[in-house]
């Protein structure tokens, strides 16, 4: 298991080593996650992401992601979902609508718990063209597919009370463009996160940590987004 953890922490280092021109930015991303248990097998989940860049000055993205999940057992979780994303850019804003399928595998070893999340996305992205007067006009929808794999490791750090613990979480997620098929063609981006969470009251927890979003944006050009990530989770 220690070799898996070594790989987890080396992935962002390897990606960073590829850079030549890097555009730095700082952001604040805030997330609310709700889930509702239907029965012992099925549950509903919804995520709302509010992402600001230049720390808090400007909008970067608003994202809504509802999904339905099926727990096969304690190890295997299947899900299908939909994502709406409003993306903000200096020149124009555009929307993206995704349909996705997911499987998550969970297991534990000692005090540590591990999750492997595999997600395949079908993406419908608004396209724009620049007009002669420097404005932009919508020009149809582009279809793309993307594969994502996230490896998460977590463990309790220490008790605050008899029933509440501060937990440590780290994950690395690689995003791969697959064009219009399922075979990976290129790296879309890489996320690395480390943070803590705390159960603030019954059925709710608050998490905070550092997220690094690193991605190619052109030939020998990369973005490096340093993010303060906060997450509120609530079980209905």
The whole-angstrom Rg is: 19 Å
Class by SSE composition: mainly beta
Beta strand count: 11
Largest sheet: 11 strands, mixed, barrel
If helices are DSSP runs of H or I spanning 4 or more residues, what is the number of helices?
1
CATH fold description: Porin
The CATH architecture: Beta Barrel
Task: Describe the strand arrangement of the main beta sheet, using strand numbers.
Answer: 1-2-3-4-5-6-7-8-9-10-11
Low-pLDDT segments, ≥5 res: none
Gross morphology:
globular
Which oligomerization state do the chains in this entry correspond to?
single chain
CATH class: Mainly Beta
Helix content: under 10%
Mean of all residue-level pLDDT scores? 90
Along the chain, the helix and strand elements come as: HEEEEEEEEEEE
- Total tally of structural domains: 1
First-residue to last-residue Cα separation: 34 Å
Strand percent estimate = over 45%
InterPro entries: DUF2490
Protein name: DUF2490 domain-containing protein
Pfam families: DUF2490 (PF10677)
């Amino acid at each position: 298991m220690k070799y898996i953890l070594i790989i987890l922490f080396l992935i962002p280092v390897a990606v960073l080593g590829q850079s030549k021109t890097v555009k730095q930015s700082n952001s604040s991303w805030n997330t609310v996650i709700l889930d509702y248990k239907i029965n012992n097998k099925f549950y509903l989940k919804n995520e709302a992401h509010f992402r600001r860049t230049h720390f808090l000055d400007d909008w970067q993205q608003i994202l809504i992601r509802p999904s339905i999940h099926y727990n096969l057992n304690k190890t295997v979780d299947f899900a299908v979902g939909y994502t709406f994303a409003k993306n903000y850019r200096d020149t124009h804003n555009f929307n993206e609508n995704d349909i996705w399928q997911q499987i998550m595998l969970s297991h534990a070893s000692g005090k540590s718990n591990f999750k492997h999340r595999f997600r395949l996305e079908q993406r419908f992205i608004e396209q724009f063209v620049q007009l002669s007067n420097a404005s932009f006009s919508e020009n149809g929808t582009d279809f793309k597919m993307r594969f994502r794999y996230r490896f998460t490791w977590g463990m309790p750090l220490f008790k605050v009370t008899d029933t509440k613990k501060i937990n440590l979480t780290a994950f690395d997620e690689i995003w791969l463009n697959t064009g219009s098929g399922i075979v990976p063609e290129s790296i879309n981006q890489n996320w690395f996160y480390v943070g803590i969470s705390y159960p603030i009251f019954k059925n709710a927890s608050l998490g905070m940590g550092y997220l690094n979003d690193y991605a190619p944006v052109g030939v020998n050009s990369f973005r490096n987004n340093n993010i303060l990530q906060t997450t509120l989770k609530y079980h209905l």
